[in-house]
User: Which sequence fits this backbone?
């Protein structure tokens, strides 16, 4: 059970609650997929995605259905948001139909928090602007834990477009809370001094940044959130910050690679590495996303097997 009704972010989340969610996700990941009791059979889950998504929306939908919930998907293109309705009007209208859980993705940081203040349903943040993506961080932590048996003490490099990444923020909070040594690797224009003020080690040289790391987590260049010329050309970016076999040699000998997707091959990661299943955890991340979201839905619904 969570101490709060909503799952809006990792920042400030008590460590025992994080561990409970990871344990439950692990439990779901270990069970054959036909064997889940319908613990959410009286639950209606509304997926409200105001920003494009494939894997996260489908992952939430599959997770909810595996636990017997009814699921509705609202995408912005077909909604009255396009006709100018405000977020709060949309939320209160949908709330009147009494969904139990709202899974919300929005381009504005803080939108799920705002929603949570205007609806009776429990709200899960499925990614808000540059702010947080808590279920991604939870599934990433589960992936690391199941692959390496621990998180505490691991050296983890989060590399790329840090400023525009909600994945980076949520992972920084979560992996640090669980005792990992997290460092950020980024062009200076894509990492705000705020992170250095938090005491996080920052590297602007990729090879130095990933040196000795057991996990190298790559991020997409999120040009849709950029305002100006923060990023070099894709060619130059790949040369300096793209993960290729040569740079990877600097990491720990059996280093594992992660990426939340969608990937830009040849920009932040070389296909050879992304597709090398002896090193890449990218497919496992997607797979464990479903179990993680089952645990999150179960927790906000207050249900338990
Ligand atoms: N899918 C992740 C997100 O929604 C990462 C990305 O878009 O690059 O934040």
Assistant:
């Amino acid at each position: 059970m969570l101490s709060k009704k909503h799952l809006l972010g990792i920042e400030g989340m008590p460590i025992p609650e994080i561990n409970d969610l990871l344990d439950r996700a692990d439990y779901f990941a270990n069970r054959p997929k036909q064997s889940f009791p319908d613990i959410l059979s009286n639950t209606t889950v509304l997926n409200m995605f105001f920003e494009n998504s494939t894997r996260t929306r489908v992952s939430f939908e599959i997770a909810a259905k595996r636990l017997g919930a009814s699921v509705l998907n609202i995408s912005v293109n077909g909604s009255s948001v396009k006709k100018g309705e405000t977020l709060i009007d949309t939320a209160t209208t949908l709330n009147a139909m009494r969904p139990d859980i709202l899974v919300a993705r929005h381009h504005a940081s803080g939108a799920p928090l705002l929603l949570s203040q205007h609806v009776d349903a429990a709200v899960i943040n499925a990614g808000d602007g540059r702010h947080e993506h808590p279920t991604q961080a939870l599934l990433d932590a589960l992936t690391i834990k199941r692959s390496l048996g621990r998180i505490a003490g691991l050296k983890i490099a989060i590399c790329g477009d840090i400023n525009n990444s909600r994945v980076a923020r949520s992972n920084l909070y979560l992996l640090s809370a669980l005792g990992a040594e997290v460092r950020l690797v980024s062009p200076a224009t894509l990492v705000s001094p705020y992170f250095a003020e938090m005491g996080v080690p920052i590297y602007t040289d990729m090879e130095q940044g990933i040196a000795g790391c057991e996990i190298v987590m790559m991020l997409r260049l999120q040009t849709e959130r950029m305002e100006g010329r923060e990023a070099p050309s894709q060619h130059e970016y790949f040369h300096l910050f793209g993960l290729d076999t040569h740079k990877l040699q600097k990491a720990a000998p059996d280093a594992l690679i992660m990426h939340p997707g969608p990937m830009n091959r040849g920009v932040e990661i070389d296909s050879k590495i992304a597709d090398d299943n002896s090193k890449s955890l990218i497919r496992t991340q997607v797979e464990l996303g479903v179990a993680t979201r089952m645990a999150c839905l179960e927790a906000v619904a207050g249900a338990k097997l």
Q: What stands out?
A: The chain has twelve helices and nine strands. The beta strands are 44-49, 70-75, 101-106, 122-128, 155-159, 181-185, 202-203, 215-218, 256-258. The pocket of aspartic acid is lined by residues 127, 133, 166-167, 220, 222, 260-261 (CB under 6 Å).
